[in-house]
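Job type: complex structure
Entries:
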Amino acid sequence: MPDKIVINHATVRERADMLSFIALCAERGLEAVSIWGDEIDKVGEAEASKALAEAGLEVFGYNRIGPFDEAHLARAEAELERAARFEADHVFVFTGGLAPGERDLAAARSQCEATIAELLSIARRAGVKLALEPLHPMLFGDRTLLASLREANDLCDRLGEGIGLVVDVYHVWWDPQLRAEIERAGRAGRILGFHVNDWLVPTRHLLKDRGMMGDGVIDLPGIDRMVRDAGYRGPIEVEIFSDAWWQRDPAEVIDTAIARCRSIFPDACANEGALT
Amino acid sequence: MPDKIVINHATVRERADMLSFIALCAERGLEAVSIWGDEIDKVGEAEASKALAEAGLEVFGYNRIGPFDEAHLARAEAELERAARFEADHVFVFTGGLAPGERDLAAARSQCEATIAELLSIARRAGVKLALEPLHPMLFGDRTLLASLREANDLCDRLGEGIGLVVDVYHVWWDPQLRAEIERAGRAGRILGFHVNDWLVPTRHLLKDRGMMGDGVIDLPGIDRMVRDAGYRGPIEVEIFSDAWWQRDPAEVIDTAIARCRSIFPDACANEGALT
């Protein structure tokens, strides 16, 4: 029986295009993948869809809407409709950072919320869920305007149905409010995904030095318990942005990720059945 | 009349020893400096004390107690007594990161608090105040166990008299609870210092890529207002860890820092009188 492990294509994207990535996941008996719109563009939507169907793979996460500049927002509706055609479980919202010259965080956050509200109404029409993923505070300003689970929960509370959040250990492991905010998200039934990787000490690059699970200092079983205790029953998604792992053979990377997940999350990987 | 600007020696430490640093600050009419114990060691305590006295410079911040390993904790009493001899306004607590193999953050945080409580009783005997400085979450695990103003306030609430906190814009500018936690610290009368620098986009290194005030995206006047509104009346301390600035002439760095402070914080630099 397959494990409830999902690989995010970004983990191997430097050396595996979407079709190769799909084949690698299918060969290992995985049930679903998380994919990227720009990688669909490279191989063509028809080819990508056909490969997924033939491999019997569902789409878990779809990356992504954003950043919030004019060019990307103009494409949001088309992107959300494409995500719906791929029957993605959820579509990531990537806010991007501050506009050039912007320093007023209250204004930037307010504008960001207004944009998410607009995207949500499009997503509801398209029939897909939006996923907020708070990123690490070191990416605030440059890549995101949303850097805590608390804000993600606050936003979801205000925005209503059709939007939830994803817990990525890399971004939130340090947060003293981690357990409380995971519990809060769980009570609201809005935990859409659980991303794993690891925090290396020292970390040498803000974007491309994530670790393989087990190679860093994050208490992965502890956060997994928090997420499960909060009611999450979905898969574990492996998402590693790493120059070191990108250089390696994609098959080896995926095999290592699966082996680490089985070792670190034995309960979550114990054949709990199909995707929720 | 001198400005209420304090330069932290770390800003120029690669090319100016403590005696040169003192001379540079004195020549510019500054009233106080923030210093480092390891830099005192290099020139000798007698020489360092004499230079400060002759320059008429007070000591604002004293760096530092920690990291919390056996070797450093064994020296804590001597370090705090030395800080008292230098009549430092406050002494920084530098927790350091996780012990090797430690992943249990609740246990690590609890041990950290116990250590700070012990240091506080020594500091009270020595007659110096301790300053908690929450560092940026990207340094959590490696360099600190304290990465939010909220935790610093919580710790101070529990530990009682003789301990406060320092607001360093670099570490906290992104925090959605920034204003609330600064107000809370102000109400408790525990804001001991206000450190300025800037966040560069993109940031290329986790430790050594801070910007000069005005070169990044932090709303410096906005945070200055928060701190002043919360009742802080002390100096603005410039602390920039930057390979780029460390390579430049220390006099040029200090002159640039003073000019930027006068331009960005005109009210705070408007001859408000002596150090509080």
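Summary: The CA atoms of residues 17 and 42 of chain A lie 8 Å apart. The beta strands of chain A are 5-8, 32-36, 58-65, 90-93, 129-132, 163-168, 191-196, 236-238.
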